[in-house]
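Reproducibility note. Readers wishing to regenerate the assembly model reported in the main text can use the exact inputs given here. Chain order matters: entities are listed in the order in which they were concatenated for prediction.
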Amino acid sequence: MLHVTLPRWFLLSLVLLLALMPLGATTFYLQLGAKILIMAIFALSLDLLVGHTGLISFGHAAYFGVAAYTLALITPKYEAANFWLTLPVAVAAAGIAALVIGFLVVRTTGVYFIMVTLAFAQMLYAVFHDTKLGGGSDGIYINVRPELTVAGFKPLDLENPAQFFYLTLIVLVVVYWFLSRILHAPFGRALAGLRVNEQRMRSIGFPVFFYKLGAFTLAGAVAGLAGYLAACQFGFVNPEILAWHQSGMVLMMVILGGMGRLHGAVIGAAAYVLLQELFSSSALFGGYAKHWQLPMGSLIVIIVLALPHGIGGMIDLAWRRRGFRQEEVAQNADG
Amino acid sequence: MFYLIQLLNAVQYGLLLFLLSSGLTLIFGIMGVINLAHGSFYMAGAYLAYWLAKATGSLWIAIPIGIIISFAIGLFLECTLIRRLYQRNHLYQVLLTFGLILIFEELRSIFFGDEVHGVAVPELLNYSIPLTETFSYPVYRLFITAVCLVVAIFMYWIIHKTRTGMMIRAGNSNREMAAALGVNIPLLFTLVFACGVTLAAFAGAIAAPISSVAPGMGNQILIVCFVVVVIGGIGSINGAMVASLLIGLADTLGKVLAPEYSGVAVYLVMAAILLWRPQGLASTS
Amino acid sequence: MAEPILQVRNLTKHFGGLAAVDNVSLEIRPAGLHAVIGPNGAGKSTLINLLSGELSASSGQIIFRGQEIGLLAPEQRSRRGIARSFQKTNIFPSFTALENCRLAAQSRQPRPLAWMRDALSYESMMFTAKQVLAAVELSGRAGDLALALSHGEQRQLEIAMCLATEPELLLLDEPLAGMGTEESLRMVELIKKLSASHAILLVEHDMDAVFQLAQVLTVMVDGRLLASGTPEQIRADREVQAAYLGEPENRP
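Running the prediction on these inputs yields the following structure tokens for the assembly.
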């Protein structure tokens, strides 16, 4: 199945629409919106790995968590940290964790790879949960959000929900653009080749190990970016952000939206967060709202059985019928 | 003497792990399905044991009933869901079984609540053997060890000495060839899966008296099982045994030497082995 | 004879107790076609896998351009100048024919850190890709998905991909397998053209093609080297006739 490139005008108008949201929306919706955008960044990072390179990582929450914890650990207790300092440090920490773990796991294949990525994520969970390093199962509070100053003045106040929303929107747009460039660049095309036929890539001379490691590290760093923003939003980190439920959840987002296409990851993140809000709404489900994982899990099962190409796949079909420009990129070879 | 006790604990834990991991590795090796919900079956076994023991008053009655129920659940799951995963990409298998975990967890929460429960050690075995003047060892733990060993030997016998076992081994190495030779593959798969589920539930049931019956118990041990399967090699029962004992030792040693980091010990062992042999200890690839 | 480009010395590969390749030695010249023939199970594919790096030998040496390469991974051997085609067509089915070749060309100009530029804008890669497609006469199919190509065209594509990596030695594993008469003729022509400028090791069952193309022939049976020499010598060799060429009607 060929994937469709969403035309520029569509994407730009979508961004514009989102940018107008804070003018009318309440704090609740702004926070929900920011959460969706952050999860979209997280899902994009995993899509690079799973959808595009074909590396099924079930431990991606580890890097999300490492960045979040890094911010929590280096933020002063009652002061605001410097955004421009803490963001690169947190993302670098996540990237380094991904580099080290990647070095160990990238040589494994297939099911082994899935299991060891999960295991290492669980190891980090154990480190933050059992030891005093991260405040144990109680977590750490970030009492004051980082401060974003440019030449002495503050363009965006992270404590303000609308401005935080703008920040996440800007970051998402930048990440989307950056990943889209990478996928078309030689590196990205090599990753696509890896997914389609790894043996052939080796036999034409690509050092497959390094490409996989590169993808793994990059994905980890971008996940870290999402984790940093999430920590900013909640003001609190605890080991559950590294738990494998989190890893499963972001994987679900990628599938929900349709793998291998960037817009799919964004759609999937939005769909997942909204569904979670729906299922845990006590207005609709009363006492059973706290068991929201039951309908969510059932939905996952149904989607895997009935709709493997996700929502994005359905959209692709619809757009193709209307004759939009198609790009010949590696198709989703799975079933 | 203290170390002897720790060693006994390590072996007991290792053998219990083997019971769980053998099901996991067989299901993967023969059917090519990675089943994340395997830990949920362990949990189901423990909760079933708790519930049935309370209802019937005796763990001895509870366990056989639990075995029958687990086997039935396994058959049902295989026929309805698992068999749709056989030809599919691992990603979808992971997601579907992950969805199952969520479902099982919530069902557990709805039916049994979120509190931690305890199961009483059966009267018959509720004493300790004195080893020295100051140290003694709980007989129930020895019982677990013995039961696991018996099951392991029984499994080994079936797989290596019977026709059924031969079919299992054939299905393990070459599915199409086995089918061409007349092995009823669908039936084999259904039985293997149901047995795997039963083994896991059985492990949960007999372990219930010494570990708490609590939410999330399945997931914790599942990941350790993954480590066992990675180290031992997929599809290899022998590898699973060696790896289980190794992990049992590592975990126990970790608890003794550095209690705070004991959770990490298991993964460090895995990391070390991955550095040395990325394909696992026993696999042939 | 000029310095051989590939020297294989006492190459052996055991699988359990079985020696799939048993003490095989041969030399390949810098240009020309050296064919390896033998009945099924003779170890020919294993030999190619050993040479290209998919398998590692139990013992023996593989010397390429004067250097031992036995411990190198397939990607490293490829970069040294060895390309191979597979018995079962091994391409990127969901990419276009052009993209298949461009990716192969990219391996020689990887540019992994150039994240801004679209890969399709690199003229040298595109030029090489178009050039190799022309060499195998697939220019007309450049924009088609590889999976839409016919079996024969796919195998031509695979050869094009090999050429895009600028090899000195080509290892061709039964390139004619599964081809009809017309496609076979085209492929034979192509290989003949290539053998003028490249060193080629050809494993094949099609005896007509082999005797048309080969300057040197090696016969393998049960993993061992039975005979080696010019086509005429091999044709006349009694042992080879008995073991492989067999009945009079099999002889070309």
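We highlight two features of this model. The beta strands of chain B are 128-130, 136-138. The longest helix of chain B spans residues 2-31.
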